Amino acid sequence: MHSGTLSLDAFLDRRATDRRLARLTHDVPLPEAKGLEFGPANNPTPMPEGIRVAYVDHAHDAQAGLSGAVPIDHAWTGTGSLAESIGQDGLDFAIAAQVAQYVPNLLGWCRGIHAILRPGGVLNLSLPDRRFMFDAGRTESTIAELVEADLLDYVRPSPRQIFAHTYETLAIGPGEIWAGDDPARAPRLCGEAALALAHRQASEALASGRYQDCHCWVFTPLSFLDVVEAASRLGLFPFVLNRIAGTEPEGFEFYVSMRRDGETDPQALRGMQEGAVAHLRGILTRQQRTARLLATA
Fold it and tell me: What is the DSSP string of 46-98?
């Protein structure tokens, strides 16, 4: 495991003014803890000296071509036992910043992380809000799609996931959308060749077994709560949500914090999960209502 590079005071000072860092490290125990960060690439989350972290991606060379990328300690596709892949459990936290949308089997990935956390351990995510980036033309992922990926035990993006990502993404960014540009008028990111390119990439990936990065999942904060609620009712999602922070003006990502609860009775746990989702949905709905009122004032 790697030790953090900041002094505790320096970390606390930085977190006090960096809302993203505060959300990604929400409920990470201080001054000492051990955990995982998924897909750190060349921008791992800054940590204080008492925090020990190991880096995980779908392959050891997942970011080999990226300048400044940190070495990956453990390879895990998101399906099967994470504990066996990393050789330990009882960890305090896991962080995944802009990673979960790339995971082929999101439900299996969440269960694998849940299993290596101690009771009270947290998983903190940031996810793209599809309304404010190149996924603006895509529809939100459904519980049916998540269940399909789980039942088929995806270890790499499926042809459908690859095709949708290549064909449906738009040439538009957060700045343009917040400035008032209509995503419906934006051209496809891959241009006129998008349809044929999508089919070719999906076909080649299927034939070769090659892993191709793509946005497998598309969410808004509320649609994420919807699929979590449905998966919890099916017993396929083990976490209890702690917090959700909606997308801020000029931004494109939202944040979710969830914990491994100590409750072991399935019915009691499900009640806690559904209560948490209802509470967070109410917060987001009130925030949206307030934003609409301010916009018309």
Answer: P-BTTEEEEEEESSTTTTTTSTTPPPPSEE--SSS-HHHHHT---EEEEEEES
Among residues 172, 161, 163, the alpha carbon closest in space to that of 195 is found at 163
Instruction: Give the whole-angstrom CA distance, residue 44 versus residue 72.
Output: 11
Q: Residue 52 is inside which H or E element, if any?
A: strand 51-57
DSSP 219: B
Per-residue pLDDT tens over the stretch 15-24: 999 999 999 9
pTM score, two decimals?
0.94
> What is the spatial distance between Cα 54 and Cα 94, in angstroms, rounded to a whole number?
10
Residues in CB range of 265: below 8 A, 6 or more apart: none
Chain centroid to Cα 28, Å, comes to: 17
- CA–CA gap between residue 240 and residue 201 (Å, rounded): 37
Q: What is the pLDDT of residues 176-197, one digit of tens each?
A: 999 999 999 999 999 999 999 9
User: Tokens at residue 247, please?
Assistant: 């997308």
Closest CA to 255 of 26, 80, 23, 84: 23
Say if residue 155's pLDDT is above 80.
yes
Give yes or no for a cis peptide into 238 (omega within 30° of 0): no
